[in-house]
Design brief:
The structure holds 2 protein chains of 2 kinds. Chain A is mainly beta. Helix content of chain A is about 5%, strand content about 45%. Classes of the chains: A mainly beta, B mainly beta.
Chain lengths: ~230, ~220
């Protein structure tokens, strides 16, 4: 079938009015909720904001096989250390895809942490690490990282569905610590199903947000960060 | 400072379950577009509308890059979201290496149904073929520009009657490959929308349907 020549002159890819004008209800939202407690366990601040920013790493890991099959392209994943790896999943025994648990071998791909930092950067999409990560520890300028908590299920409520991941950090540094940026870091390993090819990418930043206002965590206090991912809010 | 009545974990939990924060830009925008051409290749209909209806399976799929496929560095089990929502195995019970990947597809239908985040299929899928009421599905196209992913498919109506498309779904298939060469598949409905006006594909005409998923940075 031939497509009429005149059609080429019509701008039909994305009309201006198809862009968001604040009247459409997005079908997906992500939120950050941050709860700060003092040394006595009393809540001293609750901060809420939209979470905006999956990184380029997330987009690459989300793409379906057809993208790789049709384009022939691989996708460059950049780790928090700045190393780059080519990601190109496929259905064949030698293609490296994200590892999956099995009883014989342990090549885990898993959430490492919600990471907090004291810097910021203007383009979250291209971020591959936090600008100024706050180290795990009880020394000056450090926070003691708890373990990330992941729910066992998705909660469905009416037409909405959501899951929440969270992590608590304690401040034993002796001084107030200020958080200005937050991200989600996962460890990614790819393996061919024949087991002959294995690559441990290491830590990969998949989500990144600069806080709309700094969060101060008092000495002896704690902060818990909740990421909520929701469809049809 | 938080008001004194905000003291319990239950109070905090209520804040974590979000309502809208209207003054901020949305994280995600999605659109459905349809372009219909007659048998001579003339554009005869253009339609676009916001996508509104992602399912819990989309949420579970996008959880994989966020939480990974293992419960932890030393826990050789898949996270509960993958097992309970997607029905994936907790662990491959054999001495096989295994990996996971996924693909998408666009499916069209001629029915309507109320949306639920647990929907598993279209109300009346239009089959791939040349028989009455069928459309010939072309190959899927996927591209991305920055944080926006475009998924499109061309369908051709080789029948002698107009076919009306009233619903569209994005389908996902997860593949788990094993070192013995076998592959397990798991299929899901990732999104479901009905068209605000039906898309009519004339006899011997064709149409291009595109889903745009835009994660704003």
């Amino acid at each position: 079938m031939m497509v009429g020549k005149g059609i080429e002159d019509i701008n039909i890819n994305m009309p201006r009015d198809a862009y968001d004008i604040g009247k459409d209800t997005p079908t997906f939202r992500a939120y950050l909720t941050i709860v700060v407690k003092d040394s006595e366990g009393k809540v001293v601040k609750v901060h809420r904001q939209r979470s905006h920013s999956p990184t380029a790493n997330f987009i690459g890991l989300m793409l379906p096989l057809t993208y790789f099959n049709v384009t022939g392209n691989s996708y460059t994943i950049e780790t928090t250390g700045g190393s780059t790896y080519n990601y190109k999943p496929a259905i064949n025994v030698s293609a490296q895809c994200i590892s999956y648990p099995n009883s014989a071998y342990n090549y885990p791909s898993y959430i490492v942490m919600i990471q907090v930092g004291s810097g910021q950067q203007s383009n979250p999409y291209t971020a591959y690490s936090l600008a100024a990560p706050i180290a795990n520890g009880s020394g000056q300028g450090q926070l003691v990282y708890g373990q990330p908590s992941v729910p066992p299920n998705i909660t469905v409520s009416g037409s909405s569905a959501y899951f929440i991941i969270s992590q608590t950090f304690n401040n034993s540094s002796g001084s107030t610590i200020t958080i200005t940026e937050v991200g989600i870091v996962v460890n990614i390993q790819t393996i061919s199903s024949d087991g002959n090819n294995l690559t441990n990418f290491g830590n990969v930043l998949v989500w990144y947000d600069v806080l709309s206002s700094p969060i101060s965590v008092p000495n002896g206090g704690s902060v818990t960060i909740y990421y909520t991912f929701m469809v049809n809010p | 400072m938080v008001t004194p009545d905000l003291a319990s974990e239950e109070d905090i939990a209520k804040l974590i379950i979000p309502d809208d924060l209207p003054d901020e830009q949305p994280t995600f925008k999605a659109y459905i577009e349809a372009k219909v051409y007659d048998k001579e290749g003339h554009l005869i209909q253009y339609h676009r509308q916001p996508m509104r209806s992602l399912t819990q399976y989309f949420l579970a799929l996008m959880a994989i890059p966020i939480i990974g496929t293992y419960q932890g560095a030393l826990i050789n089990q898949a996270p509960g979201i993958l097992t309970s929502v997607l029905g994936l195995p907790s662990s491959i019970n054999a001495a096989y290496d295994a990996n996971i990947s996924w693909d998408w597809a666009i499916q069209l239908g001629s029915g309507t149904q109320a949306f639920s985040p647990t929907l598993t299929g279209l109300a009346a899928p239009i089959l791939n073929g040349t028989g009455a009421g069928q459309l010939s599905y072309g190959s899927l196209s996927v591209s991305h520009a920055g944080s926006t992913i475009y998924v499109s498919i061309q369908v051709t109506n080789t029948t002698s009657s107009t076919i009306s498309v009233t619903e569209i779904g994005l389908r996902g298939t997860i593949y788990i490959q094993y070192s013995n060469g076998s592959v397990s598949t798991y299929s899901f409905l990732l999104s479901y929308d009905t068209f605000s006006t039906a898309i009519s594909v004339p006899a011997l005409g064709m149409a291009i349907f595109q889903i745009t998923l835009s994660f704003t940075g």
